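Sample entry (155 residues):
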Amino acid sequence: MTWQAYSESWSFILRRYLPRLALCSLAWEIVQLPLYTLWSEPNLGWIAYAVAHCTVGDAMIGTTVLVIALILSRAGEPANWPRTSICVLMVVLAVAFTVLSERINLTKGNWAYSVWMPVLPWVEVGLAPVAQWVIVPLAAWWWANRQPSQSRRLR
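Predicted structure, serialized as tokens:
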């Protein structure tokens, strides 16, 4: 059977991975704020809206790339998932999407980088959003797969 036939797969995605991905994404969005011109916006409500909006979008992107990675890796029962393949696919898919999305949104003027954003010269995309999709999904994946220590399980 494929991964989607197992309730444990959906439980992992929705109860373990997604909440951790959302928390990591929220932290990343807040930390990288000074790298965007939005940071200089005097309206704190607009900044808060943008952070929330981007965090929800990140959670959607991250969950989608996990599902696509599970499909492409032909994952079966969660206990036997090809974890390395899934992680590599998640990062490759997320970075590819990010480069495309950043280029489109920068061109449209939907957002702009501040002078502090390091830019990758060959694609003219910020380093922070690319690094986000290497670090955040892997951190969420690791965190979601962590088993509680024996002493914490007994409480």
